[in-house]
Amino acid sequence: MHQDLGSAPRPNTRMRILAACRELFNERSPADVTTAQIAAAVGINEGNLYYHFNRKEQILEALFGEFERGLREVAAADLTQSDDPARYSGYLSGWFSLMWEWRFFYRDSALIFRLAPSLRPKVQALSDHGQEQIRRVLGNRRKAGLLRATDEEIDQLIVNAWIVSTYWIDYLRSRHGVADITREQLNWGASQIVSLFRPYLTAAGLEMFDIKPDPDTLAQPD
Amino acid sequence: MHQDLGSAPRPNTRMRILAACRELFNERSPADVTTAQIAAAVGINEGNLYYHFNRKEQILEALFGEFERGLREVAAADLTQSDDPARYSGYLSGWFSLMWEWRFFYRDSALIFRLAPSLRPKVQALSDHGQEQIRRVLGNRRKAGLLRATDEEIDQLIVNAWIVSTYWIDYLRSRHGVADITREQLNWGASQIVSLFRPYLTAAGLEMFDIKPDPDTLAQPD
DNA sequence: GTCTATAATGAGATAGAC
DNA sequence: GTCTATCTCATTATAGAC
């Protein structure tokens, strides 16, 4: 009521801190960004920074909250099944885009757990949720005759897909020295995931991913 | 000549430092182990520690040298092909055992690169070497009719296998909160790798891994 | 080679005025 | 809410005696 809606509402300091931190942390690891640098980036004083977050850890917790909301959205997106093939090939890249926006969580998880141990159980819970969603999606696709795999194979697929996607950004850096990831490299990651599922896709499933079926190695529908 | 071979030759301080560090670093990350703690573990003074390694970074470099030798041995082991099936099922666990011995390198790579940036190119070179070896092994198995895969599929397999194996230990910790890894969990990792190759194995190849062939999804020999 | 000092650093964090 | 000034504190690292 007190706020003048006519004037450009300058985002409050708390939000500006979080936005600046996401950028800084994506550039270099949270452990390499000092509170002094954060304050400088936001254009405020270090003392002021500590008024809003009196532990560096709290900044990471707040950022994780934002990340978590985004992740749950993406995870849920695929559940609203439609027959639109574009959905099937597109949602993987949605997943990877989110990973890109919050790449420091993937890239620097070890450092982050050190700075904010409280995130450890949260990440675990989020992983549980994510893998559950993937399991449901795969279950649905199996029922729809797009996928042919035993329960055990699905278990293994989920774990492998999870690992490859989660560590993809770190892999690019440690193996290929990639500092600034391109869209192309994200697509490469997505194609690695597709390659995991490919041997288990039926003809109909392959079509969904726009893959030319190979009659010799095609998974047979039940 | 001066050394009395009759008395138990106490290992020199440098070696004791390295041995102690490997243990300490495996327990908790190198970033969490201070030079004071290292000295205490070895039973020497901190000043003495700095006589042997005047940067903490140098300790990590020396340890990496040891690790590298071990890795190259394991990588080469599978090249000496034999028809002994035990070799095929056993060498993966040899690989994972080495990863276990030097698990801090896998678990804390981000922290380690921070402490010892000089290791970054070395790790990259080692990865190159490792993936080359895997490529040769897979090529040989394809020629031997154990594996059926296109060149592109082999490329993707190598990358996926590399990522899953490299990050397996970190995955166990971040996803399942595993601090002390059991032999069983290492075997689980190895079985995840096997599951990557399984769809591409021929009947003969499956036998090598002691896997019961499933006639429906069997890869056909060329 | 090994020790006892002690310096040098640089981060996170706080008190209290405005 | 924002600032200035200051504190605390853990670490790495060095100088020099033994």
General description of the model:
Two copies of one chain form a homodimer. In chain A, helix 1 (13-27) crosses helix 2 (35-42), helix 4 packs parallel to helix 8 (119-143) and helix 9 packs antiparallel against helix 10 (183-197). Residues 1-9 of chain A have low confidence and may be disordered. Chain A is mainly α. The first copy, chain A, folds into two domains: 1-54, Arc Repressor Mutant, subunit A, CATH 1.10.10; 56-208, Orthogonal Bundle (Tetracycline Repressor, domain 2). Chain A is built from eleven helices and no strands. The A-B interface holds A 29, 31-32, 107-111, 113-114, 120-121, 123-124, 127, 148, 153, 156-157, 159-160, 162-164, 166-168, 170-171, 174-177, 191-192, 195-196, 199-200, 216-217, 219-220 and B 29, 31-32, 107-111, 113-114, 120, 123-124, 127, 148, 153, 156-157, 159-160, 162-164, 166-168, 170-171, 174-177, 191-192, 195-196, 199-200, 216-217, 219-220.
